[in-house]
Design a protein that fits this description.
268 residues; Rossmann fold; Dna Ligase, domain 1; five-stranded parallel beta sheet; 8 strands; 47% helix; elongated
């Protein structure tokens, strides 16, 4: 049976997925809410199906509506894009039960990566470098202060539950730690009904590298020298090198891109 891809998203990401499918000669189905009927992704797709009213809860997050659209169009694949249902392990599992291929990680992987502490443990076990940080911390100021000193400043205090950066606080020194912890605990409790928090080292290298690589590019042009640089490539290579150093991989030797890819994919 020929494949047909339903894109369970909207906007820029839906357009990108549809273009990729078209390049592979895979027919596409766009879904939309009442607010997006005239959106570019709807016009780009081979078929379209309405999900419901403008509110995301009644349209893009409505699993019954998404699967109805898939059945009506005989879609064999569903790509969730990002956001909405992309990180919903139940949605991925339902795809399997409906006989539709979920274009993404397995339900088990989505569930594992949705828990920050478990995701960190899996990454470490797979040999993937991670930044210095903690798991869930007890509500003990002395333990928290000790963990912060071990990580080093600047660092981020984060809600252990949830996501989206909610409750995240930058801490530049020990004097600012208590206020950040108090703020994060309060917001996390209100947003996720859990006051658990964790901390991680903040990497500030990427911004500096981006600026310096851009500076090199401009300097080369200003002096009219035949020196061609790729700021993005330089930025990525330099950022990767500094991130790996910060993640404590010096003792592991230089990790190649292929090694990093294999270790990361092993988690899924």
């Amino acid at each position: 049976m020929p494949h047909k891809l339903l894109v369970a998203n909207r906007g820029e990401i839906a357009c990108r997925i549809i273009r990729a499918a078209q390049a592979l000669s895979i027919p596409t189905v766009a879904v939309y809410s009442d607010a997006d009927e005239a959106a570019p992704h709807v016009a780009m797709a081979d078929e379209k199906r309405r999900l419901g009213p403008a509110r995301a809860q009644d349209s893009y997050l409505n699993q019954d509506a998404v699967f109805l659209a898939a059945r009506e169009t005989n879609s064999t694949l569903i790509h969730p894009g990002y956001g909405f249902l992309a990180e919903n392990s139940g949605f991925a599992a339902r795809c399997a039960s409906e006989g539709i291929v979920f274009v993404g990680p397995s339900p088990e992987t989505i569930a594992a990566m949705g828990d920050k502490e478990r995701a960190r443990s899996l990454a470490i076990a797979a040999g993937v470098p991670v930044l210095p940080g903690t798991g869930r911390l007890p509500e003990d100021t002395a333990v928290i202060a000790s963990a912060a000193e071990a990580i080093g400043f600047p660092l981020l205090v984060k809600a252990a539950a949830g996501g989206g950066g909610i409750g995240m606080r930058l801490v530049v020194n020990a004097a600012a730690l208590e206020a950040a912890v108090t703020a994060t605990v309060g917001l996390a409790q209100r947003a996720f009904r859990s006051s658990a928090l964790e901390m991680a080292k903040l990497c500030t290298y990427s911004i500096a590298i981006a600026r310096s690589s851009e500076g090199i590019r401009r300097l080369s042009r200003k002096r009219s020298r035949r020196v061609w640089t790729n700021p993005l490539a330089m930025r990525c290579a330099a950022s990767r090198s500094n991130l790996l150093d910060l993640a404590g991989t010096t003792g592991q030797g230089q990790l190649s891109s292929s090694t990093m890819r294999k270790r990361t994919l092993s988690i899924s």
